[in-house]
Amino acid sequence: MIIQLKPDISESQTESLINEIGQIGYKITEVKTQEGTYLVGIGSSDFDIRRFGHHEGIQDIHIVSDAYKLVSRKWKVKPTSIDLGDGVFIKEGDMAIMAGPCSIETEDQIVKVIDHLKANDIKIMRGGVYKPRSSPYAFRGLGIDGLKLWHKLASEAGIKIITEVMQVSQIEEMLDYVDVFQVGARNTQNFNLLDELGKVDKPVMIKRGISGTIEELLQSAEYVFSGGNEKLILCERGIRTYEKASRNTLDLNAVPILKDKSHLPVVVDPSHGIGIRKFVHQMALAGVMAGADGIIYETHEVPEKAYSDGQQTLNFAQSAQLTDQIRKIFAMRKTFDLL
Ligand code: PEP
Ligand code: MN
Fold first, then answer.
1. For residue 337, is pLDDT > 90?
2. Band of the pLDDT at 303, cuts 50, 70, 90?
């Protein structure tokens, strides 16, 4: 059960409501976000919502029996729009393109990527300064100093930043230098990290876990929302299956399913999804047709020299072509009325 409270509800009204719901055996969690206050009730007894409907401070009551609730479309039909400022949005009805290298490497590299994005009217740059690498000997990122330099150059160019936060202790130092925090596939179920991201007023994009189900992704988003942060984006980036011919199996089924189950925007990452440069185009465009609200992909001036993930990274000519195709396919999708 979700009870959305009116902004002017008094403390004593909230308390009496919580008591009354407690009497039917429901455990209540009070959730305060940037947008409002909710009571999330977990319990199994059957009741008639009219029993609570008379309370003064209630805006709305919804019965949501799924494991995830606040991120569900069952109570919030209106899609969530993520506003990054300066007219940049990640939202249903738009096609957000986020492009950049796997890793932030040097000042020269940052400048070249920014110039490429500007030339192609791409407003959001991806890149990692803290890199989760399978081998401890691989390049693990420039860290906070790299982020500060990148932020300076990107904000001067009017470009927004999405980058991965790997642990709780990094959140505070990164906060002023990111526009969207990315939770990587290896951290989707790092519940302490998700709890802490619930306390910040910055958008968070959660990638699907390497072996994660769609429901687990939604429950991870529920952690952040119930911690107080509604500014959430979901990302399908491929899952590990028995298939060895591609790095991961990009599960495009997840896109319409997530869009149906949740009001949050959904982004597709074809680079990690297939992991093979020459097939990134196809999977990106398939992601657009599947209903994505955004595509995030890797690009670098010389992919062969990239410090990480070069095998799935597009050069600038390929990136420019893909961006153009994404926009064309998106314009076509809009005429199909698929949802
Ligand atoms: C990345 O975006 O570079 C990355 C490491 O992604 P993922 O967490 O999906 O592997
Ligand atoms: Mn990568």
1. no
2. very high
CATH, range 2-62:
3.30.70.1140
CATH tag, 82-337: 3.20.20.70
Tell me the three-class secondary structure of 175-237, residue by residue: HHHCCEEEECHHHCCCHHHHHHHCCCCCCEEEECCCCCCHHHHHHHHHHHHHCCCCCEEEEEC
Q: Is the CB of 43 under 6 A from ligand 1?
A: no
Please indicate whether residue 272, judged by its CB atom, sits closer than 6 Å to ligand 1: yes
CA distance 271 to 247: 9
Q: What is the pLDDT of residue 339?
A: 60
Domain ranges across the chain = 2-62, 82-337
Among 272, 274, 299, 312, which residue has the most ligand 1 atoms within 8 Å of its CB, making it the best to mutate?
Answer: 272
Inter-residue contact 309 to 276 (CB < 8 Å): no
Q: Which residue has the tokens 């409270």?
A: 5
What is the dihedral sign for C-alpha 110, 238, 78, 337?
Answer: positive
Atom index in ligand 1 nearest the CA of residue 272 equals 9
Q: Are strands 232-236 and 204-207 parallel, antiparallel or unpaired?
A: parallel
> Looking at the whole model, is its pTM more than 0.85?
yes
Which strands, in side-by-side order, build the sheet including 37-42?
27-32, 37-42, 2-5, 58-62
Q: How far is the CA of 41 from the centre of ligand 2 (A)?
A: 39
| 184 C-alpha to ligand 1 centroid (Å) | 5
- The preferred substitution site among 102, 129, 217 for testing ligand 1, maximizing ligand atoms within 8 Å of CB, is 102
Which is nearest to 267 in space by CA: 191, 182, 187, 193?
Answer: 182
Predicted pLDDT of residue 48: 85
Does residue 338 register a pLDDT over 80? Answer: no
* 310 Cβ inside 6 Å of ligand 1: no
